[in-house]
């Protein structure tokens, strides 16, 4: 599930895996991408100045990792960092299992140093209170904001309402017939004559 919370001029993005039964790595990536697209479609006066990301990995297991494509996930993270209009200032990984260092090691090499420097790991959610005001956190994290479950339902409803938009293949598939012909579009940079015959007024 994905939830967003306004925190002054900043925005908090929370990602949490709800169920692990019938887990499919690529379905999870597709779902996250859908929610990201919907997030960008939201009407707003301006984008938040900064973003705080919270990753809840309570349900993650070694079996789950074995079912995932780590190399694909590395590329997906880089895509998000380059393509999403966000300015990350904090990343919090909460409810970390005992093997979280192993998990982090699988993707650490793909992360830029400036991102590594802002990542914080917490064995539970209480560590969040040292960095984020409780009034901006959901009740699941002992905060005062709307429940994660309610927020998740909001996103699902929004996506379903735009189902026809997302199902339109014409929006997502490239038309190879419109591809620019490199030879035809090339600029002629050749010069006739020589510098010896160059006349300057």
Automatic annotation (TrEMBL):
GO terms for cellular component: membrane. SUPFAM superfamilies: CRAL/TRIO domain (SSF52087). It comes from the Eukaryota. GO terms for molecular function: phosphatidylinositol bisphosphate binding. Residues 1-149 form the CRAL-TRIO domain. PANTHER family: ALPHA-TOCOPHEROL TRANSFER PROTEIN-RELATED, GH10083P-RELATED. This is SFRICE_036243. The lineage of its organism: Eukaryota, Metazoa, Ecdysozoa, Arthropoda, Hexapoda.
């Amino acid at each position: 599930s994905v939830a967003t919370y306004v925190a002054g001029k900043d925005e908090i993005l929370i990602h949490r895996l709800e169920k692990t039964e019938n887990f499919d790595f690529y379905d999870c990536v597709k779902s996250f991408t859908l929610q990201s697209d919907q997030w960008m479609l939201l009407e707003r006066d301006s984008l938040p100045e900064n973003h705080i990301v919270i990753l809840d990995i309570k349900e993650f297991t070694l079996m789950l990792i074995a079912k995932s494509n780590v190399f694909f996930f590395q590329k997906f993270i880089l895509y998000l960092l380059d393509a999403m209009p966000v300015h990350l200032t904090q990343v919090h990984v909460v409810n970390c299992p005992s093997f979280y260092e192993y998990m982090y090691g699988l993707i650490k090499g793909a992360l830029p140093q400036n991102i590594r420097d802002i990542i914080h790991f917490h064995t539970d959610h209480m560590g969040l209170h040292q960095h984020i005001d409780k009034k901006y956190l959901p009740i699941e994290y002992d905060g005062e904001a709307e429940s994660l479950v309610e927020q998740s339902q909001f996103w699902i409803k929004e996506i379903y309402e735009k189902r026809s938009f997302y199902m339109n293949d014409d929006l997502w598939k490239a038309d190879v017939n419109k591809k620019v012909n490199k030879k035809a579009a090339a600029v002629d940079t050749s010069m006739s004559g020589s510098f010896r015959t160059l006349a300057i007024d």
